[in-house]
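Hey, I was hoping to borrow your eyes for a little while. I'm sending you its amino acid sequence along with the backbone structure tokens. Take your time with it, there's no hurry, and the full record follows here.
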Amino acid sequence: MPEAGTIDWMSTKGLTIRVAADGDAEAMGCLHVRAWQSAYRGIMPGEYLDGLKSGDRTTMWRSHSARTDLRPVLVAEIADRVVGVAGFGQEQADTPSSDCGELYAINLDPDHWGRGIGRALLRQVTTELSANGFAEAVLWVIVENQRARGLYESEGWVADGAVSEAAILGVTVTDVRYRKSLGG
């Protein structure tokens, strides 16, 4: 994958999708928290969501970007403002398949929902996973996140029956796994 700033994979109607640069971490952290607080309100405990700190997410994204063993993160940008972020790479599972990639996270600033930016970012991730030799990909999504599930399903991702549960401040949050064939 190219270095940050060397290529714009998509640039239409003011939208650019590119590799995240070091200076993007703060914007990525802020939008990550805003996205979670909007998307998961009523699903996850309010005190958990209200306690999310953009500085913590900034540190997380900065740390990810500094690791050379991970694939670069993509950002969606409009008018020099980062409005979306997506992390992806090898499937993270107890017994990962070498030909299966994974969308780890995709977050979009809520002010930009419904404008096709998430779809463009998802398509670019899918293209990158395929170009990196993965025959299929998976992602995990919270059951109640109907907005995201609708997007994934409209792009050919299919729930494969796998579920995962986690307790967050006494609330059980259930994720479902989606899968998509990438091979020709």
